[in-house]
Amino acid sequence: MSSPTFETERAALADVVAIPVTPFAEDGTVDQDSHRALLGRLLEGGVRTLTPNGNTGEFYALNPQERRLVTELTIDEAGERAAIVVGVGHDVPTAVASARHARDCGARMVMVHQPVHPYVAQAGWVDYHRAIAEAVPELGVVPYIRNAQLLGARLAELADDCPNVIGVKYAVPDAARFAAFARDAGLERFVWVAGLAEPYAPSYFSAGATGFTSGLVNVAPSVSLNMIEALRSGDYAGAMKVWEQVRRFEELRAANGSANNVTVVKEALASLGLCRREVRPPSHLLPEAERAEVAAIAAGWSI
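^ Dihydrodipicolinate synthase family protein, sequence as received from the core. Prediction below:
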């Protein structure tokens, strides 16, 4: 039996990889109706790749049952309209169970959150991802890299053992480091996804990325799609016009160590009447002054 080539999955990563929010109801549970409505809005807006249980979905604030629910809702709502890259992580058995659940629900890829343990050896990073990738050889696996010390050679080592490691969400805020890492690992071997969204997409595309993640896309799908179309055509001036359009919104998200990364997105959605603004600790609601600024930005976009 021949090994899968993952051509469809690789193509799906070379796109706007949307990270949907997880809306909460008044009683604090996952608001399933709002969740489906927001997913439908993304799909109708032209988004074709979704990552349930990403950081913008408050992955670490969801319990295991909620993470499974979010996976199931997303796959059911998307149907054949989008590729699904399910976020998995925590300890190895939990990550493996989540990956197998994603597979059983019909997903074709998983994105592995960067290990949160404070002591991560480079060889241990390989071991962690190998254990997950080997458990689901039929799924495409996308490591989420935020560790500036990780060497590209380690990713190549992982892929030598696990050919289903097909893409990388690279989220170190250093375009020069990204360029070197991608070339050390194998520029053509993987699909490189700019993991720091629209603000870093132009610089990362110039160094070899072909997709980028987005939380902003929840609010204004057309804005994110405009950027990737410009980047695909090599129109960096056009891409930077979009960059200027989203700059303040993304600055608000990135402030204070990205404290309000999810909060700003949910606040914008709430200002448009699309879901409640509530987030879970350790995130927190915005002060009133910033709420007004976020609402003004969202209202100014062509939704």
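The CA atoms of residues 11 and 191 lie 8 Å apart.
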